[in-house]
Design a protein that fits this description.
The longest helix has 16 residues. By secondary structure, the chain is an alpha+beta fold. It is globular, with a radius of gyration of 14 Å. The protein has a single domain, classed as YdfO-like fold (2-Layer Sandwich). It is built from 4 helices and 6 strands. The protein starts with a helix and ends with a strand.
């Protein structure tokens, strides 16, 4: 991984938080530099990117207040937050707050598998295929 790659991942994060980069754009940028999947931890506020060559890169979220508890998982609320961000009704920080309030502790995005998996603290989950 080179400086350009880390700068691009940082830009993906800051632009997503500003509402100027969409999820499809973010995924396209990540795939272009070899990210295979990433894990987002809502408790600590950041993502770990896993590259196909075995490298790993951590990226902290700006202005994220760490979670002190994780509510009971509500898959319907998770799905509603996903639909809201897909329709452009909310931006990434709001999406993160919505899914945290719906009981998501961690989510993973699998670029080659074209899906995201949202996990609650008790093992409940919601699988969301990428939009076509």
């Amino acid at each position: 991984m080179n400086t350009h790659d880390t700068e691009l991942l940082h830009k993906c994060t800051t632009d997503a938080f500003a509402g100027t980069m969409t999820f499809p754009q973010t995924v396209q940028h990540m795939a272009s530099i070899g990210v295979r999947w990433y894990s987002a931890d809502l408790r600590f506020g950041g993502k770990t990117h896993y590259f196909g060559n075995g490298e790993i890169h951590d990226e902290k979220w700006p202005e994220w207040t760490p979670l002190t508890s994780c509510p009971r998982f509500n898959g319907e609320r998770v799905a509603a937050a996903i639909r809201a961000i897909q329709r452009g009704k909310i931006i990434y920080p709001e999406f993160l707050r919505e899914i945290a309030e719906a009981g998501v502790a961690v989510y993973t995005v699998h670029l080659q598998g074209r899906k995201a998996i949202y996990l609650g603290a008790d093992g409940d989950f919601h699988v969301e295929p990428f939009p076509q």
